[in-house]
Amino acid sequence: MSMALFAGCLWVLAATLVAFLPMRRQYVPGVALLILAPGVIGWIGLAHGWLPGALALAAFLSMFRNPLRYFWARARGRTPEVPK
Questions:
Q1: How many whole angstroms separate alpha carbon 84 and alpha carbon 81?
Q2: Which of 4, 8, 9, 16 is within CB 3.0–4.6 Å of 43 for a Cys-Cys bond?
């Protein structure tokens, strides 16, 4: 297994562990994972080609669809509701 796929697997395990946390404790590690994801996805794409990179991107977008919607709304000047 290449180091890029190993890093991707570690990222997925970390994201799964963060999902088990209560919502109020998910923000800091979730943002860290959100920041690290493009690097890991790019690394997978460079090491294995565009198709595995695109699949990794699709998985990332699926997992982080709500935070990405929030940041998209904030970028457009809207104030989205945050869950308590």
A1: 9
A2: 4
Cα 67 from Cα 30, distance rounded (Å)? 9
Residue ranges of the chain with per-residue pLDDT less than 50:
none
pTM attached to this predicted model: 0.76
**Core vs surface per residue 13-52: b (16+ CB within 10 A) or e:** eebeebeeeeeeeeeeebeebbeebeebbebbbeebeeeb
Cα separation of 28 and 16, whole Å? 14
Cα gap 25→18, rounded to integer Å: 8
